[in-house]
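Interim report to the steering committee. The following record documents the input for J domain-containing protein (276 residues).
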Amino acid sequence: MILPSRLSATTLGDLLGRLYRQRTTGTLELSDLWAPPGAVSSRHKIHLASGLVSGVESSLPAPPLGELLRREGFLGEPALRALLRRLGDGDPRPSGEILVAERLADPSTVEAALRVQLRMKLDALFELEDAAIAFHTARPTKITARRIHPLEPRDFLVGRPRLRDLVPASEVRYRRAPARAQRFYPGAPKAEEETRREPPRASSSRFCHPIPEAKRRALAKLGLSEAASENEVRRAFRKLAIELHPDRHVTAPAATRDRNAARFAEVSAAYHVLVA
């Protein structure tokens, strides 16, 4: 498979779509081209297993797992302090493994939070303006040892920017340095304005004007209209989280527990799309 050498020639959604269709296993590496003078270029890695996103390694900020669970009320302060103490003592295990092994958090809750964290890391990479592209075909890396279910195509493809939404390449004479480079290289030529073909959008709401497709889907998963306020989003999430939390279905059949755990993960991901 031949991939473009620059992210500016395509979109991350198109790259992931091609790798998904080929059911490829390996690592997609994006090297930032616009690092400050004297700084090492950042490398971001997206790990794939049979075309599905199984892990993301990036220097871009994402909330730690313990803080993510504490913020949503699934991890108390004593448990968070115990986790930090373990990490401070040099425990080499990932935070999720520590939380489960020490019985500080429910395994289903930890898995749902890991999926939310993975989605947030991937969302940050979609904001990259340009990067050098490389792909390394290999077996799944150690990052998949967390044993969380990879992100599904609806998590990393549906609603993402695609090259077909842009002006055809024949209509663009050349591209110059992205706007972000201006902060580091004041003398760099400014990027040309490129006209985008915007798809039809729904009516506006407080989240975005007009509301993006990803947030429209997230609101639907919470059972809310597009005009819902942030407080309404929080109340709806709390209600569903209490209803679907694994601790409330300990004695339920395995199929019911699995269905509720999957629904809980979807609700958590939708919530973070709207308020994170």
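Residues 87 and 93 are 8 Å apart (CA to CA). The committee is asked to note this result when reviewing the revised timeline.
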